[in-house]
Amino acid sequence: MPTRTDPARIRNFCIIAHIDHGKSTLADRMLEYTGVVDERSMRKQYLDRMDIERERGITIKSQAVRLPWRVAGDEYVLNLIDTPGHVDFSYEVSRSLAACEGAVLLVDAAQGIEAQTLANLYLAIDNNLNVIPVLNKIDLPAAEPQKYAEEIAHVLGGSPDDVLQVSAKTGEGVRALLDEIVAQVPPPEGDPEAPARALIFDSVYDTYRGVVTYVRMIDGYLGSRERVLMMSTKATHDTLEVGVISPEPKATDGLGVGEVGYLITGVKDVRQSKVGDTVTLARHGADKALPGYQEAKPMVFAGLYPVDGDEYALLREALDKLRLNDASLAYEPETSAALGFGFRCGFLGLLHMEIVRERLERESDLTLISTAPNVVYRVELDDGGTHEVTNPSEFPDGKVETVYEPVVRATVLLPSDYIGAVMELCQGKRGTLLGMEYLSPERVEIRYTLPLAEIIFDFYDQLKSRTRGYASLDYEPAGDQAADLVRVDILLHGQQVDAFSAIVHRDQAYGYGVEMTKRLRKLIPRQQFEVPIQASIGSRVIARENVRALRKDVLAKCYGGDISRKRKLLEKQREGKRRMKMVGSVEIPQEAFIAALSSDDAGADRKK
């Protein structure tokens, strides 16, 4: 029998924090001090593998790594899972927490608790994890560790002296933190003699080896060259390789209770290795599956279209490949009269949308147009029918009884000086105040119910500008509510252009119509005849601009003579223009689409 790691010597933990509070830097120091990465191989953000993560300085994918650590002569195995900090990737965080028994709650000693810190803390508490509070960046001149230790103690309970102080940059306090993880995080529980059960918490696609499945062992033992069963899909496979990541993949004989590692079965379809599924042995396996995860539900939808129509098949292939690494991405084919063939994609938020689009363009060498993002509406008709609308063109034309829009429970943390400005912003976005709480004399937590559609455009930018960058935002779904919403259509020469349609609140419909018609008037080239650009709600036009016709100077050859000759030529030209307008069609250049849609999204897409 191969040697197994004693579960009492294993500690599974993750690092949770707000964006830019130093998770990846702390992980770097831990890799360095435990000796799994030597000085020559060390680089910043070691666990952020994607180029896009390193360029933006954010973590997008969770990473698991095995670290050896010695305390008082005893050897321990620490399994660290580094998690993202952005609200759009909280799905990644929730999956990582389910594989752990403890969490290091990291707080910036110069900024204090932020909105996403609280959100991740509540996730950890819901998963019954032991939380170790840590103040990072104590080496900064602006650091106020004592003040923020009291703030953390106020939120968590306990004493400010329990809060550890570290500097991930210089390494101060990191060794003491590793000792505390061994002391405070409980060892994993499980039955080593029971049939094998492993929880899949992530899966990635490797071009050469197929799907690599990351698992956390709960019961039993899983060795290589065994036939395994995926309990939800009932698919069976042979394990070609089983191993741990330290920090590069390292093959082992197998995985025992509490261990975190990977399986390779040679499968090419990631859907057969579903996140949240239970892996067991095909023969004498477990009868009962582990509780998995809730499916990630897309909150924001947008159309993705290739600029060159011939690249549609390439886009489909690229999306299929990306789906292998991103289980939360949803998409289905759709067509647009204006943009041709493309896909309606569902995302967890705007940053997620931006990352997906950038990865598609970068990894598959595509040039894409994305339509304005919108949320999912539920429309009830007079006849009792119900429609789910993910695209403005699906909005029913019949008698609409009620339109329901998704709402979120938003938490904003900010200095008390900016309360008035933030409340004014939230009221202007149709928000409802739920409550307010002072975390300290200088810092306030405000809770609002806000329509998701109001948040996904420029809310984040406005919040940052009104608070000089000091406010932080977190939100979670909170059901839906009835609202007075209408579809605004853009008509070009009497023809509806579906790519520019939008569902907006009735109070904002006029503003959207005026803005869009003005923009298109500048972008659409002049034709031989006058082209009207109209914004309408149903059959009622609410805004109009005209693209003036190109006119040839038919009087150039007339000099002197009778005025009736000139009138005759002008009348003949006018008649020709009228006939041309009846049969003419307006071609919108792709550049105009890209300019109109990208400038429409500009404020939203800057959300970092």
- Tell how many strands the DSSP assignment holds: 31
Give the count of structural domains.
Answer: 5
Distance between the termini: 51 Å
Q: In CATH terms, what is the architecture of the largest domain?
A: 3-Layer(aba) Sandwich
Determine Rg (CA atoms, Å): 29 Å
Instruction: Name the shape in a single word.
Output: globular
Mean pLDDT: 77
Low-confidence stretches: 45-51, 599-608
Q: Helical stretch count?
A: 14
Write up this protein.
This protein has 608 residues and is of the alpha+beta class. It is built from 14 helices and 31 strands. Helix 7 crosses helix 8 (350-364) and helix 12 (506-523) crosses helix 14 (590-605). The chain is globular, with a radius of gyration of 29 Å. The two termini are 51 Å apart. The relative contact order is 0.08. The model is unreliable at 45-51 and 599-608 (pLDDT under 50).
List keywords for this structure.
608 residues; alpha+beta; 14 helices; Elongation Factor Tu (Ef-tu), domain 3; Alpha-Beta Plaits; Rossmann fold; 33% strand
Explain briefly what this protein structure is.
The protein has 14 helices and 31 strands. By secondary structure, it is of the alpha+beta class.
Helix-strand blueprint:
Blueprint: E1 10-17, H1 23-33, H2 51-56, E2 63-71, E3 74-82, H3 90-97, E4 102-108, H4 115-126, E5 130-136, H5 145-156, E6 164-165, H6 174-184, E7 197-206, E8 210-219, E9 222-223, E10 227-230, E11 236-238, E12 241-245, E13 249-251, E14 254-255, E15 260-264, E16 278-281, E17 300-306, H7 312-325, E18 330-336, E19 340-347, H8 350-364, E20 368-370, E21 377-381, E22 386-389, E23 400-415, H9 419-428, E24 432-440, E25 443-451, H10 452-455, H11 459-466, E26 472-483, E27 485-492, E28 495-496, E29 502-505, H12 506-523, E30 531-537, E31 540-547, H13 563-583, H14 590-605
Parallel strand pairs: 1-3, 1-4, 4-5, 5-6
Antiparallel strand pairs: 2-3, 7-8, 7-16, 8-15, 9-14, 10-11, 10-16, 12-13, 12-15, 17-19, 17-20, 18-19, 21-22, 21-23, 23-25, 23-26, 24-25, 27-28, 27-29, 27-30, 30-31
Helix pairs in contact: 7-8, 12-14
